[in-house]
Design brief:
Layout lengths: L4 E4 L7 E6 L5 E6 L3 E7 L5 E8 L6 E4 L7 E6 L2 E10 L6 E10 L6 E6 L6 E7 L4 E6 L9 E4 L11 E4 L8 E5 L10 E6 L6 E3 L12 E4 L8 E6 L3 E8 L7 E8 L5 E6 L5 E6 L3 E7 L4 E8 L11 E4 L18
C-alpha cells in the first residue's frame, strides 16, 4: 500500500481526546483537554496547516462536522454541554476573512456526553447525543439559514442502558436509516447493542428486534457507507473486533437478520472507522497499533499494520494522519483518548 504518515505538532497542552475529518477529508478538528479545539486545513502540497483555535472553559471530549450541504458547522462536546459553531465571513472586498462563531449551546444532558454524531443529510440537519447515564437525545435545526435555533425532536430514546458510550448512523438512502447505540457497561448480562430504525413517514424511531452480538463493553461502533449495497455493515470495537451484516426481513417490519464475524485480536479494540466507500476498515487497539482490514470474498483480512512509537501516551499531544486515507482512520491511544 502506498501511503505515508504525516505528524502534526499541534501545540496542544494536554491530551487530544478526539479528532474529526470534514466530509471531504480536507479539514481536521482536534479536541483536547487543554480546553481548545484546533482546526487544520490541508494545502496543495498535502501539508496540514493550522487555521484557527476555539477556546472553552472546560476540557473537550468530542467533535463532529455536519454535512457541507448545511454549511460549515462544528459540534463540540464538553461535560454536559454541546456548542454549535458556524464558519462565517467577516468584512467586505479584499478584507473578507473567515472565522468561527458560537451559535448555540445545548444544555439538556443530565450527565457527561460520551459521543455525538450528525445525521445523514437525508434526515436534515440533526444531531444525536449519547451520555454516560444512557440518555440519548436527538436535536434538529429546521431552518438551515438560521443555525441559532435547534429543538429536541426526541428528548430520550428508550434504550434502558445504564451507560451509552457510542453512536452511529447508517448512511444508505435506499434503505431505512438505522441508529446504532453501544454501551460500555461491564455487566455481561446487560444489553450492549441497541439499534433503532427510522420511519420516514412518522419520523419516529422503533427499536429493531434484539440482536445479542456482543457481551463485552462496546467502546466504539461505525456503520460502513453502503455504496451500492442493499444491507448495512456495522463495525464494533470491543474485546474483539466485530463486523455485523444487517439485512432486513421481507414483509417483517423492524426485523433484521444479523450475521456477526468475530476477528480475534491480541489486544482490546477501542476505535473503528471506515474509508469513504466502506471498502477499508481501520481499528485501533490498546497495544498502540492501527490495523487496516479488507473483505476478500467474505473473508476479512488485515492487509496493513501501523505501529505506534515508544513515547509515553501521557506526554504525547501530537497526531499522525495518513495522507493516503485521510478519512479512513484516526489513531487514538485507546486508554487515554490521545492520538498518536
Amino acid at each position: 500500500m502506498n501511503s505515508s504518515l504525516k505528524q502534526i505538532h499541534t501545540d496542544h497542552k494536554d491530551l487530544i481526546q478526539d479528532i474529526a475529518f470534514d466530509f471531504y477529508g480536507k479539514r481536521v478538528a482536534t479536541a483536547s483537554l487543554d480546553q481548545t479545539v484546533k482546526i487544520w486545513n490541508i494545502n496543495e502540497n498535502n501539508e496540514w496547516v493550522f487555521k484557527e483555535e476555539l477556546r472553552h472553559n472546560s476540557g473537550l471530549q468530542k467533535v463532529a462536522w455536519a454535512h457541507p450541504e448545511f454549511g460549515n458547522l462544528l459540534a463540540v462536546a464538553f461535560d454536559r454541554v454541546v456548542w454549535i459553531y458556524e464558519e462565517t465571513c467577516f468584512g467586505t472586498g479584499r478584507s473578507t476573512q473567515n472565522g468561527w462563531v458560537k451559535r448555540l449551546a445545548l444544555h439538556d444532558s443530565r450527565s457527561t456526553i460520551t459521543d455525538l454524531k450528525f445525521a445523514p443529510k437525508y434526515l436534515g440537519l440533526q444531531l444525536v447525543l449519547c451520555s454516560q447515564s444512557g440518555e440519548v437525545k436527538i436535536y434538529e435545526c429546521n431552518d438551515i439559514i438560521n443555525s441559532n435555533v435547534w429543538s429536541i425532536i426526541h428528548p430520550d430514546l428508550r434504550t434502558n442502558m445504564s451507560s451509552c458510550s457510542s453512536c452511529s448512523w447508517s448512511t444508505c438512502f435506499k434503505l431505512p436509516i438505522l441508529l446504532a447505540l453501544g454501551s460500555d457497561e461491564t455487566n455481561p448480562t446487560s444489553e450492549k447493542l441497541i439499534i433503532f430504525e427510522h420511519n420516514e413517514n412518522t419520523r419516529q424511531y422503533a427499536k429493531i428486534e434484539r440482536a445479542q452480538v456482543c457481551t463485552d463493553p462496546i467502546r466504539s461502533l461505525a456503520f460502513a457507507p453502503s455504496v451500492g449495497k442493499l444491507y448495512h455493515t456495522l463495525a464494533i470495537a470491543s474485546k474483539s473486533l466485530l463486523i455485523c451484516t444487517i439485512k432486513s426481513m421481507p414483509r417483517e417490519p423492524y426485523r433484521y437478520q444479523v450475521n456477526t464475524i468475530k476477528l480475534e485480536s491480541e489486544a482490546s479494540i477501542w476505535r473503528v472507522c471506515w474509508n469513504t466507500v466502506g471498502s477499508v476498515l481501520a481499528s485501533a487497539s490498546d497495544d498502540r497499533k492501527v490495523k487496516l482490514w479488507k473483505n476478500n470474498i467474505s473473508e476479512w483480512k488485515c492487509f496493513a499494520t501501523i505501529n505506534g512509537d515508544s513515547r509515553s501516551p501521557f506526554t504525547d499531544q501530537n497526531i499522525k494522519l495518513s495522507l493516503a486515507f485521510p478519512k479512513t482512520f484516526e489513531a487514538p491511544n485507546a486508554k487515554t483518548g490521545a492520538k498518536y
